[in-house]
Input
Amino acid sequence: MKSTPLRIPLVCGRQILNDGSDGVGHSVDPATGEVIAVFARAGAAEVELAVAAARAAFDTGPWRKMRPFERARMLQRVGEIILARRDDIARLESQDSGKPLRDAYWEVDCAARFFEFYGGAVDKLHGNSIPLGPNWSDWTVKEPIGVSLHIIPWNYPFQLIARGVAPALAAGCAVIIKPSADTPCTAWEFVKACQEAGLPDGLVNLVNGRGSVAGDLLARHKGVDQITFTGSVETGERVMVAAASHAVPCNMELGGKSAQLLFADADLDRALPIVANGVFTHCGQVCNAGTRLLVEHAIHDEVVARLHERTKGMRLGAGLDDPDMGPLISKSHQASVERYYDVARQEGELLLGAETPSDPKLAGGAFVRPALVVGAGNRSRIAREEIFGPVLTVIPFRSAQEAVDMANDSPFGLVAGVHTTNISAALAAAEALRVGQVWINAFGVGLDVEFPFGGYKLSGFGREKGLEALAAYQQIKNVCIHHPMPPAPAGRPDGVVSAD
Ligand code: NAD
Output
């Protein structure tokens, strides 16, 4: 039996609006094609309301007047509420985005960790004192940047909202969240958790809608002081132009074509599952997916055979059934990924991926099989373009230098993996790789919120996660005082005025 679609409202301060001036949108379960939610789409009127609410919350609201430890407790409370609703949020996220349930649980746990981590940071955001010599005092104060806009993609919506919003709130900002029109559902759960934790009205606002309408209006709005954008390079470039139109800074978390370097001395039993998970998680729809496997020539054929064996039996299914791999986000994205299967055939050999899933239960969904490509060089389109699907291109190398050169020969620079038992070789590669994060004999640590994440080159700029993320949401004010000693009164050389 089909269930009634959820209704997702807009949240502009205290106002919860079930209608937006840009009509409604529908969110579809990508495993079935069934509509699971109807959401109000914001137009100009609701964008104005949301920005006004955020401005008022930042400029005159109680958030910045609270003592830091009180704000810290409230943020930590958001994390507790998220964990208390873990099952419901994970199920909704799995259905809305198509990802296997275990990945959706990971997202929810990660979101809660961001609130624990940045909640713990609120009362430690101090400035410095700077020595200028006698009779001068100088210090810096870290102040919140203002109204922070968070534009979110569809692949990890709940986790990515928390990744940006938790440090922004910790720094003292007010926020506006603009989710993707493909995955609007869990953003509303996020806002409800913030409201229940007692965050002041207007501090967290939700503006669903089309990127070209609501997203563009928000990014150009003079009431927005900073933008954190996560999404494609193409849209990121548009958002940068919008940000430049009113001279506000932005964080750009863009795409990737990350390399995994597999040396012949690696422990293959450990490395190959890491390589496979690194590319096939969430059907390859991960910005830092390790989509290029650079493998030492001597083990190339063995590695390809073992990956082939491992990959061909992967079980596809709806996210809620927790399969090895769920669907892509939409039928149109499926068509785009399948076009790359043709490119792979032209540029090399497509060992797996071409067969359309035959299970009738999958017929309504956007399913593709995982693909393995060999024989295409590092300069081929299949090895250079972000496909955002489950396509692993395997390329041999003959020396460590060649491996690093190929890894760096990419327009992107998000992350890289190095698999070897030679720690000197691993450290030399880590030093030479032009990426924001290097993994050695690993490719993710679980709930990795503590250390910085972000790209080189076309993968963007600015850093998310870790204490580094806070800098995007703060301005530094310097205060300087000149306080020369007054001349000593006559009779007392030390300047002390006596009482008698
Ligand atoms: P997208 O660029 O199509 O959309 C991202 C967001 O931008 C959506 O909310 C969309 O509505 C909005 N948008 C679209 N046009 C806009 C405009 N003119 N002005 C303002 N906002 C606009 O990206 P997507 O397809 O949702 O996500 C996939 C991309 O995201 C991939 O390239 C992936 O690598 C990237 N990504 C990067 C990271 C990271 O941390 N580096 C994480 C996840 C995803």
Q: What stands out?
A: The domain at 6-254+459-479 is CATH 3.40.605.10 (Aldehyde Dehydrogenase; Chain A, domain 1). The two ends are 95 Å apart (CA to CA).
